[in-house]
Design a protein that fits this description.
about 325 residues; alpha/beta; Oxidized Rhodanese, domain 1; 2 domains; 5-stranded parallel beta sheet; globular; disordered N terminus
Length: about 325
């Protein structure tokens, strides 16, 4: 039995070495990403030139086949299973940790630089290589999960020019007819990826939000509209409602579902039209450095990615911990009476 276990361990080490060696080989020529989002067709044509990082909250589905259903004699993808071949894998739940903030023990906090560095090294991420983040694409929430990883990579030093999201996610990849793998993604060693000190210009904290409100600055609530007005609320926050003075940027109007069932970001022009329809001015001098928040930071990460990366407004900060942190600091919310 001991010999068999040692044999498996040796195989795993050899496989890990080959995996990292293959990843490092991609660095021979630095590819320029076409923008903050790429389509499945582009990724298929350049899959050997980028690091594909799968992010999802159900890692078990990486090794299970996709689920299909038939309607009117046609086969449709119901749920993503498997992953894009050669993809690295990040468990979405590992992107946030419990930390002490202002003397409070709070969940849903960004990892420290050391924690994030360890996580990226554990998946064998390499430095100075373009990254395409692949959410499942089964829901708008999956796009926000991908956006949170993009936000954390940016916070810890990866240039935005080296980060893109796969529009439609793995769902769009599968429905385009590209190959899928259900092989286990082994954790590999050999990465020397390093996190840089956090970029404070991207993150906001509770004191920043209060100062922003005091000076009449723009604070955007990126949750669904029913949570903004206080009809419903997430179980992770205590009371229904919003931060007084916040402006709604409803999640319902920020994403769209394609005919193949995959969820996509809108175009920059469409987003500008959405902001205009909501009477949100991003170019006002007093509101240029907007802060986005939600319940714990996931919706906010999606809004940050849209405003900062897709529209191109660099003065956007995401409130770490969001309403969860706000309430744990004893601050009020307003909603329906």
């Amino acid at each position: 039995m001991r010999q068999r276990c040692l044999g498996k361990f040796a195989f795993w080490c050899f496989f890990s070495f080959l995996s990292c060696a293959a990843t490092q080989a991609h660095a021979t020529a630095m590819l320029t990403l076409p923008g903050p989002v790429v389509c499945a067709q582009w990724l298929h044509a350049h899959s050997r030139d980028v690091q594909i990082v799968d992010v999802r909250d159900d890692p078990d589905s990486l090794s299970t086949p996709p689920i299909f259903y038939t309607q009117n004699g046609q086969k449709h993808l119901k749920r993503v299973g498997g992953h894009i071949p050669s993809a690295l894998s990040v468990d979405f739940l590992a992107l946030r940790n419990t930390h002490r903030v202002d003397g409070l023990s709070l969940d849903f906090q960004f990892p420290t630089p050391a924690e994030f560095q360890s996580l990226m090294q554990s998946i064998c991420l390499q430095s100075n290589e373009p990254i395409v983040i692949a959410p499942t694409g089964d829901s708008a929430i999956s796009l926000q999960e991908g956006a949170l990883l993009a936000l954390e990579l940016t916070v810890y030093g990866v240039p935005t020019s080296e980060i893109a999201l796969l529009n439609g996610g793995t769902h769009a990849w599968i429905t385009a007819g590209f190959p899928i793998s259900t092989n286990t993604i082994f954790p590999a060693s050999g990465s020397h990826w390093r996190a840089k000190p956090a970029r404070a210009s991207i993150l906001a904290h509770t004191a920043d939000v209060r100062r922003q409100l005091d000076r009449g600055g723009l604070v955007l609530d990126a949750r669904p509209l029913d949570q903004f007005v206080g009809i419903t609320h997430s179980p992770v926050v205590t009371l229904p409602g919003r931060i007084q003075g916040a402006t709604a940027l409803p999640a319902e109007v920020m994403y769209t579902r394609a005919e193949d069932g995959s969820w996509h970001f809108l175009t920059p022009e469409q987003y500008r039209n959405v902001l205009a329809a909501l009477d949100i001015e991003m170019d006002s001098r007093t509101k240029a450095d907007a802060i986005v928040y939600c319940n714990t930071g996931q919706y906010a990460a999606g809004a940050w990615f849209i405003l900062n990366r897709i529209i191109g407004d660099s003065d956007i900060r995401s409130y770490e911990g969001s309403l969860y942190n706000w309430e744990h600091h004893g601050l009020p919310v307003v909603g329906l009476k």
